[in-house]
Design goal:
Elements lengths: L10 E3 L8 E6 L10 H15 L4 E5 L5 H12 L3 E7 L7 H8 L3 E5 L4 H14 L4 E4 L6 H21 L5 E6 L3 H13 L4 E6 L6 H16 L11 E3 L12 H14 L8 H14 L6 E6 L3 H6 L8
Parallel strand pairs: 2-10, 3-4, 3-6, 4-5, 7-8, 7-10, 8-9
Antiparallel strand pairs: 1-2
Helix pairs in contact: 1-2, 1-5, 2-3, 5-6, 6-7, 8-9
Amino acid sequence: MYTENINPTPIHILSERFNNNTFFIKRDDLIPFSFGGNKARKAVLFFEDLRAKGCDSVVTYGSSNSNHCRIVSNIAASKGLLCYIVSPVETYRSNLNSKMIELFGAKVIRCSVSEVRDTIDKVERVLKNKGYNPYFIPGGGHGKIGTHAYVNAYKEIKKYENDRNLHFDYIFHPSGTGTTQAGLICGLLIYGGKKKIIGMSIARRNPYGGKVVHSSVNEYLMGMDMEYVTFDHINFIDDYVLDGYGMYNDAILETIKQLLIKDGIPLDTTYTGKAFWGMKEYIKKNQIKGKNILFIHTGGTPLFFNNLGELKNE
């Protein structure tokens, strides 16, 4: 497996022409390791840091649906490293991601959400007492390393625009822990461009969700010795989270079905399909017309198959 760099992921034009907009999609799901996605882009950098610090085991956090935990456990297995995952019982359900996490030999420790921090601390203490040097990766790849991964992604987007004399007016993407959005915003500030970056929340509500993104942006900019940004720079949209993480409706299933039929691209109900549906609703609500719109496919292909039976050919 590569460890140093990720090659630029392709950008495709879609058949979608909603409101006379032209839609493009950046295929981070095609990063060539463990079904790719934004968590793969971030994890590569975390494991570089792990190696540089001489660590020999990994501890992280996430739900049973988590693409992050699948990727981390897969990379750990490929390197022969112990991997411990602390996972909330409240959101547990068996799915293809959770089955692969088991396949990769990760030790999953379930606890209530309120006990997560203490459980992580306990796991790290146990590993250290056994002589290990554990490395902690925040849930979802949160933090400056995860943010930097999407500064790099924005740089790829900017090069695509320059090479084709094209300008994206909007960048939409699923927003979870916030570092994907933070990285894109920081990339915009560093490399320039006039566009709106819209994070479609897949779980969190405002004001908390937006504040987390805002904090991540300024944490990264502080390390770059750049001026802080105000909260006005953050477009974190929570109108389409439904009843929370992992919740979906028939409109999301229809969105997934249509993109698969027309463009051959799989989305999932937890992350990308929910965000793509939310994007279209947001465009309709705000009467956005005649623009170039880029959607970032942040991965989750195994989760597509969990709901395949619900996509009906009517």
